[in-house]
Specification:
Structural class: mainly beta
CATH class: Mainly Beta
Strand order of the largest sheet: 1-10-9-4-3-2-11-12-13
Distance between the termini: 38 Å
Strand content: 35-45%
CATH superfamily: Rieske [2Fe-2S] iron-sulphur domain
Radius of gyration: 15 Å
Order of helices and strands: EEEEEEEEEEHHEEE
Number of domains: 1
CATH architecture: 3-layer Sandwich
Helix content: under 10%
Length: about 180
Amino acid sequence: MAYEVAANLDEIELGDTLLVELAEPICLIRLGDRDVRAIHNTCTHQQQPLNEGTVEDDGTLVCAAHAARFNLTTGESIGIPVVDNIPVYACKIEDGSVMVDLDQQVNATAEGRQSSPARGAALLEPAGLSRAALRTLGNGLGPARRSCRGSGEGRRATRTLGNGAGSGTPILSGVR
């Protein structure tokens, strides 16, 4: 697999997250004007969606469910609870598009692998849950969608992916 368009840069405000559904759920995080990180969207603590977390000024993301904190460069868990690293994927910006390559995992996970686990299977196996079971639980592995939640603004938008190449039709947006 090669880089694929995940979103348009202008869809992600500074300090916000954006959930995109590629071959697996990916959380995009915009840390700077041209600095976007791509991580697997499932927290390794209790499989909660990371796009609902809070982006901190120090380049970390705090999971909304149980406050697990992750370094967005290394994927490393910081502090308590101590959990496995999250996969961080190669991400670049070209012509205003955020591009992600799921075959280029840029950090090591608990298994010590540099390459992407079998599309998140390593994250699911410890809990003994299949993707179908997780979809039923509503952890973000369900139908193709996008959502965005600002770290302090309360902004939320959800979109369908349409053709899977980053286009979509807004179905819900606004301030809550």
